[in-house]
Amino acid sequence: MDLSFLNDFVTNLINSYGLVGIFLVMFIETVIPILPSSAILPFAGYSVFTSGKHILELLMVSLVATSGSTLGSIVLYLIARKIGRYSIIRLGKYLFFNESKLIKMEKWFDKYGSKSVFVCRMIPGMRELISVSAGLARMNFIKYMIFTFCGSFIWSSLLISLGFYFGDIFFKEKTFNFERFLDYIPIFAIIVLISYLVYRFIIKKKLMKKDKN
After folding, report:
1. Cα 207 to Cα 193: distance, rounded to the nearest angstrom
2. Distances from the Cα of 5 to the Cαs of 1, 22, 110, 173, 180, in angstroms?
3. For residues 16 and 63, what is the distance between their CA atoms, to the nearest angstrom?
4. Counting CB atoms within 10 angstroms of each CB, which of 31, 70, 137, 148 has the fewest?
5. Residue 118 scores a pLDDT above 50
6. pLDDT for the residue 14
7. How far apart are CA 178 and CA 63, in angstroms?
8. What does the alpha-carbon distance between residue 24 and residue 28 come to, in Å, rounded to a whole number?
9. Residue 92: what pLDDT?
10. pTM
11. pLDDT for residue 102 is more than 60
12. Ordered DSSP codes for 136-151
């Protein structure tokens, strides 16, 4: 699958608009997911690598991408909270989701609560809808924002780092090598799982301390 146009687009975006461009494209991608972040962010990381920049710039790109994604998620959250379930379902056709998908996500949110926001920000296909579910459930805004930022930062950092360190494998010929990309999916899954387990361990320790007190 030839994605050289995407490489050129992201490269031109960074060269022309720098971090502002990354922020805007992640904001738009979150509100209207026309082009998935799993396609955008590795190219962004590879563009950082080919431009001769270093780890500090890589971290900055990750933070900016996370900020754009978080702001977009906050917009979805506030819209859902303001207009309610009926209206958000009618609006869903413009945001690329339907009622059946929303019902599944609401069940997920009801089962796992606020921690589902943190986890779903790292799962393609669920990253945007979880914002709608959280808004409809009127989740505490500060907690929502923190969980969203943390989950988005892990997701953005992983994908950008993949492009930075392994971009030559995927993009050197400006052709996306899907089979090679799939080889690294288990690595991402393990990192995400470890992050979630660490998160649960920290939460349990805090709860145990509260019980003792």
Report:
1. 21
2. 11, 16, 41, 12, 20
3. 19
4. 137
5. yes
6. 63
7. 27
8. 6
9. 74
10. 0.72
11. yes
12. HTT--HHHHHHHHHHH
Q: Can you tell me the distance from the alpha carbon of 73 to that of 29, in angstroms, rounded to the nearest whole number?
A: 10
C-alpha 50: how far from its chain's center?
Answer: 23
Cα–Cα distances (Å) from 177 to 3, 97, 166, 181, 183, in that order, read: 10, 29, 12, 6, 10
Q: What's the burial of 184, exposed, middle or buried (CB within 10 Å: 0-12/13-18/19+)?
A: middle
**Distance between CA atoms of 86 and 91, rounded to whole angstroms?**
9
Ordered DSSP codes for the chain: ---HHHHHHHHHHHHHHHHHHHHHHHHHHHHS-SS-HHHHHHHHHHHHHHTT--HHHHHHHHHHHHHHHHHHHHHHHHHHHHHHHHHHHHHGGGTT--HHHHHHHHHHHHHHTTHHHHHHTTSTTTTTHHHHHHHHTT--HHHHHHHHHHHHHHHHHHHHHHHHHHHHHHHTTSS--HHHHHHTHHHHHHHHHHHHHHHHHHHHHHHHHHHH-
Please give the Cα distance from 53 to 50 (Å, whole number).
8
What are the boundaries of each domain within the chain?
4-178
Amino acid at 23: F
